[in-house]
Structures are given as structure tokens and as C-alpha cells.
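Show me a record, fold above all:
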Amino acid sequence: MPQIAIISSSVRTGRNSHRVALYFKNYLEENKLATVEMLDLNKYNFPLFNERLRLQKDPPDAALDFAEKIKNADGVIIVTPEYNGGYPASLKNVIDLLYDAWYHRPVAISTVSDGNFGGAQVITSLQFTLWKMRAWTVTAMFPVPRVRETFDDNGNPVDKAALDKRTANFIKELFWCIEAKKRMME
């Protein structure tokens, strides 16, 4: 069973994208598809990036723990809101921190907004950053428009059947990349 790390990237007060991260965790666990590690950046509260983790003389334990969880994950799902066409500094911070951990890591992206476009403007910039870090971004994307109308605070979708069907395709693409990476490493 694959190990999936889900990064809930918003640290904003009243954040809504965390609902989607909770949904993915519930979906994977309820369907017994993977073991899941929720990496909530709001709980980590990392300081601003000042150097890559491997170059820090005395890195914080939380950063080492986070890096280990990414390295141990077969794949990563990043759930990010769109803030003014970009992704939050909290996410850029940990991407830059963990340069080595991203190497060939399958990463699926879910973008979230309260508007009609589901954070679609952030996909390109986030994908480009991950490419520069040499991550393997999954081609399937999962934009979530009108997040507060789509999910409750606990990540329960309003239309579970429709969302589960869409999610199955998204997860299938992530798992395909995980399997392809395993075969390439043999």
C-alpha cells in the first residue's frame, strides 16, 4: 500500500483549503488505498527560509521530521489555496527548504479558491517551481472552485458521489506515477 503525504499549505486564519486536504485523507483511508500522513503547515509553523535544510548547521527538529516524511512518502498531494494568482509563502518556504527531498517525487496538485476557477491560476507557477526542484508533477490536476459551498469544515463534500468519482481519476494518475517510478528504480 503506498504511503501518501498530504501537504495542507495554508496557514491563514479561517483557511478553507484544509477542508480539501481532510477530504483527500478521508478518501484514501476510507477506500483503503494508501497510508496517509497529513502535513499541516499551520502546525509546523516553519521560520522563513534562510537556507536549504541540508546546508543548515543546526536545523530545527520539525524541519528534519517534515523532510523525513516527504522522503518516506511514495507520493505527495499538495493542497494549496490561490492568493492573488499565486500560492502561499508557507508552501514556497517548504519547497525551497527541502530541495533534495523533491527529487523524482511524484507530486499531485490540488488548487482551491472561493471563486469560480478553483485556483487554476496557481497551477502553472507551482508546477514550474516543483519542476525546478526536480519533482515529478502528476499531469492530472484537481482544482476546487467555491470550496465553502463544496465542503464542510471537516472535509465532507456536499456531493460525495460526484466528487469521489472525480477524485478516483486524480488518485489513479498519482498511483500510476508512483508505480512508474518504482519500475524505473528496479
User: Anything to note?
Assistant: The beta strands are 3-8, 35-40, 75-81, 106-112, 136-141. The chain has a mean pLDDT of 92. The chain has one domain: 3-185.
